[in-house]
Design goal:
131 residues; Ribosomal Protein S5, domain 2; five-stranded mixed β-sheet; 4 helices; 5 strands; 22% strand
Length: 131
């Protein structure tokens, strides 16, 4: 069996699934073969993705390579954050308490509610007409 030099973890959020590979390095962050800032256009999403690294103060210590698909940008950012957190937890168990207290190891289970038949949406009703 070949020992790999990276740690693999999966993160999910809404319809997005992120496969995260973390290995010791200089802080390179790639998402779908593109630089993270290039892929996630908004600064707010970039902050979400780097929250676990900033919390543990290991931004420049690990290279991160992510494959993400499904969902929109917000869901993908959440999936990446969970994947990065899980990978860091695998790398060093001392990080577990800090990540758990910050809520980064918890899977956000909220997904879009399905549309019901006889209605225009999941909950909305058609306008009621008495006459």
């Amino acid at each position: 069996m070949i020992k790999s030099d990276y740690t693999l973890a999966t993160g999910r959020r809404k319809a997005a699934v992120a496969q995260v590979r973390v290995k010791p390095g200089k802080g390179k962050f790639l998402i779908n073969q593109r630089k993270a800032r290039e892929y996630l256009m908004r600064d707010s999403l970039m902050n979400v993705v780097t929250q676990p690294l900033a919390l543990l103060d290991v931004v420049k210590k690990y290279d991160i390579n992510v494959k993400v698909k499904g969902g929109g940008q917000s869901g993908q950012a959440g999936a990446i954050r969970l994947g990065v957190s899980r990978a860091l937890d695998k790398i060093n168990s001392d990080f577990h308490l800090e990540l758990k207290q910050a809520g980064f190891l918890t899977r956000d289970a909220r997904v879009v509610e399905r549309k019901k038949y006889g209605r225009p949406g999941a909950r909305k009703r058609f306008q009621f007409s008495k006459r």
